[in-house]
Amino acid sequence: MTLRVIGAGLPRTGTASLRRALEQLLGGRCYHMSAIPGHPFDLGPGWEQALADETPNWDALFDGFVAAVDWPASMFWRELSAAYPDAPVLLSYRDAAETWLASVEATILPYARMAQAPDWRQSRGLAQLFARFAGTTDW
Asked: Which residues touch 83 (CB under 8 Å, ≥6 apart)?
C-alpha cells in the first residue's frame, strides 16, 4: 500500500477532522500523530531516523495507511512528496493565526517546554520534532 495523500498542514489545523474525512474518501487508514503508540514522547525508530536527516523506510513506516496528516508526517511533506510523487500534497490551515496560536499554546507548547528539561532523556525525539516544527528551541 502506498500513500495516496500527504498532509502538509501544521498541528492544530483540523488534522483530526481531515484524517476522518480522508479515511472515508479513500477507504483506508490515515496516519496521524495519534497513531503513534508512544505518542507524544516516543516517536519510534523511523521518525528518529528522519529527524537525524536519514531516510527511513517510508513504506514500512506507513504500512497499512493510505494517507498521512498531522505531525510528524507533515513536518516531512517534502521528503514524502519525493518518495510518493503521485500523491497530492494537501495543506490545511487556520483562518486566524491568533486562534491557531492559542490552540498550540494550550495543547502543544506545554509538551515542548517539558521536552526541553535536561533530565527528560526520553524526550530527545520530541524535542527535535518541536525544533523542526518551530524553527527554534526558544519557547
From this structure: 3, 58
pTM value is 0.76
Domains of the chain, by residue range, sit at 5-90, 97-134
Where are the alpha helices (H) located in 5-123, listed in sequence order?
Answer: 15-26, 45-51, 58-61, 77-83, 97-107, 109-115
Write out pLDDT tens, residues 13-25.
Answer: 888 899 999 999 9
Q: For 67-81, what is each residue's pLDDT tens digit?
A: 999 988 998 999 999
CB atoms within 10 A of CB 63: 10
Q: Spell out the residues 6+ positions from residue 18 whose beta carbon is closer than 8 angstroms to its own.
A: 7, 9, 30, 69, 90, 92
What single string gives the DSSP state of each residue in 45-60?
HHHHHHHTT----HHH
